[in-house]
Amino acid sequence: MPVLVASDLDRTLIYSSAALALTMPDARAPRLLCVEVHESRPLSFMTETAAGLLTDLGDAAVFVPTTTRTRKQYQRINLPGPAPKYAICANGGHLMVDGVSDLDWHAQVTALLAEQCAPLDEVREHLLATADPEWVRKHRVAEDLFAYLVVERELLPEEWVKELAVWAENRGWTVSLQGRKIYAVPKPLTKSAAMHEVARRTGADLTLAAGDSLLDADLLLAADRSWRPGHGELADAEWTAPTITALPERGVLAGERILREFLKATRAGAPL
Fold first, then answer.
1. In its keyword annotation, does this UniProt entry include Hydrolase (predicted)?
2. Would you write out the chain's pLDDT as a tens digit for each of its 272 residues?
3. Phi, then psi, of 229 in degrees rounded to 5
4. What is the C-alpha R_g of the chain?
């Protein structure tokens, strides 16, 4: 039976230059591989060692990139190793099969959101009305499923984020602050639901996962074994559970450690 590995990408397996956390002397810094170019500029990286580990993992398991990115944002990533047959985009809103969104899955998700959550337009209007242009740089809607703001973190009032979270909670939405982005996402829009669907289709009897943010929590809890890095929302909150391993590594070296753990558990073939 195959092993399914569902991993978040940004700040879990791949890192922007600002998130690398290269704290060692320059001469001892790991060699990096660029895995994403945007507008002709290198944007995301992993270590060369991590790239080799991911290639090995792609041969040994069903590797499923699992991201809050839109399909367009995901498709500009060029990961090493075999091309994944499945990918989860838009926080579970799109299940990609051989690079194409599964329309039946997307229809199921949108019907569920319409039934259980306040509409996207209401949330977007609230963001526009309450967010201060002094610290907001961009307002965005992703795949007609959720909204996010790009902000100046040093100017962002912590109290505003807390108030937004309470407001959203009462309408069936979740708020997550990741780097310079504040996400407002419907609660039923989950990575875990899409992971369960891929597990059903592939017949996987062991599921492994990793992630760093609040939007990854459901995925980590749903998998048989999970890992989180020493940075991010979950680490800041000291969030954990019996099947989750909190790693000490931060930045790009955490991505390398996570891949080592995935390979070790995959080769063992069962939870340790």
1. yes
2. 899 999 999 999 999 999 999 999 999 999 999 999 999 999 999 999 999 999 999 999 999 999 999 999 999 999 999 999 999 999 999 999 999 999 999 999 999 999 999 999 999 999 999 999 999 999 999 999 999 999 999 999 999 999 999 999 999 999 999 889 999 999 999 999 999 999 999 999 999 999 999 999 999 999 999 999 999 999 999 999 999 999 999 999 999 999 999 999 999 984 44
3. -75, 175
4. 18
Instruction: Report d(CA 270, CA 212) in Å as an integer.
Output: 23
> Distance from CA of residue 43 to its chain's centroid?
16
Rounded to 5°, the CA angle 119-124-128 comes to 155
- Measured between alpha carbons, how far is 18 from 251 in angstroms, rounded to an integer? 9
124/142 Cα distance (integer angstroms): 11
pTM equals: 0.93
- Secondary-structure breakdown of the chain: helix, strand, coil percentages, each rounded to the nearest 5: 40, 30, 30
d(C-alpha 220, C-alpha 170), whole Å: 24
Using an 8 Å Cβ cutoff, are 188 and 116 in contact?
Answer: yes
What 8-state DSSP symbol labels residue 96?
E
DSSP string of 210-267? E--SGGGHHHHHHSSEEEE-SSSHHHHTT---TTEEEP---THHHHHHHHHHHHHHHH
Q: Which residues have CB under 8 Å from 103's CB, separation 6+?
A: none
What six digits make up the tokens of 129?
């009305």
